[in-house]
Structure of EGF-like domain-containing protein:
Amino acid sequence: MTSTAIDGERDRAMLFPDYYFFAERRLVNHTVEEKRVKNLDDCELLCYLNENCVSLNFKKDPDDNLENNSLGHSCELNNANHLEYDGDLKTDAVFYYRGSKNACSNNSMCQNNATCQSGFTFKGYRCLCPLGFEGERCEKDTDECKTTPQKCHVNAACNNTHGSYVCTCKPGYVGDGRDCTGTVNSVKKPLEFELDNMYLFDIDECNETYAVKRNKCHLNASCINTQGSYNCSCNPNYVGDGFNCEADPCYNYKSLSDADRKSNHQTPKYQEVCDNSLPEGWYRFVGAAGTKMPTTRVPAYRCGTNWSGWLMTAHPTLEDGEVLRTVCFSDRSTGCKYSNGISVKNCGSYFIYEFFKPPGCDSRYCSTD
């Protein structure tokens, strides 16, 4: 069963497969809300409207039936499903259990302790970022020192940290950084008067002969001296602002060259291959595997596996940079047995993919020319 709940600008689509419906079963330890309802349909509707709900327990009134309109039925909304916690699906004679496809079951979807909510956006999930982080997966640190209004006092320095920031009063001022007041004798004479009969010269912060490093450039960055300051620039094959540089995945990836990954390869019976053992990281299709992932539906039982994985949207342009895309692992009909999110990057003459462990076994990422 598929349903969509609409609340203002919020759209949510959820899939409750019939094979996720179990009589005399109850998922324990994951209930986030309990309600009294008229019938099972109302319980499902409440799950759609609760943004953290991905499964439900329904307890029918022992003196009634499911068609009765009394508020005598118990509805428990859960923030997990039986696939994540199969040991918590217990036998209970008075309960029904119904689960949905939970795109958040892959814990790598959202980063930095963000909250993952299933059923939102074209990817099938969305991430609610904690304070100090932003981005589709909350992967980016918010630089509070560049936001307005200013976080720190006008006489304080702002230093960005991972997920937060620190305010420090400037020399000659005291306070907590948000409020700084001048101290006695804090006003000094201009520098030129303090340095009478002395020469002023520029310090080369990039000079490596100093006993103490005078610049904050990253180990994989180059330092460029300027008049009164310096600039940092990441070295070739690295990306960042110069103060933080990471290896560019376009030059740091693993290759996949298996011919049986091609979308036109029919899987022999009892010879299925699974990507569950594929280490997470960046990959490129080469050689007999082709050059990229298909962006049109690949039937099940192709690519050397049961559930064939393909991109549900187009590849990014070079200007798009690194983007998020959803992979559908085809079922036997026209739907997705599973789906999960990956990162894709256009490297100019080829594409690379940041693969994560598929939601279920007997699933594999497909390729094409």
About this structure: The radius of gyration is 28 Å. Confidence is low (pLDDT under 50) at residues 1-10, 184-197. The chain has two helices and 26 strands.
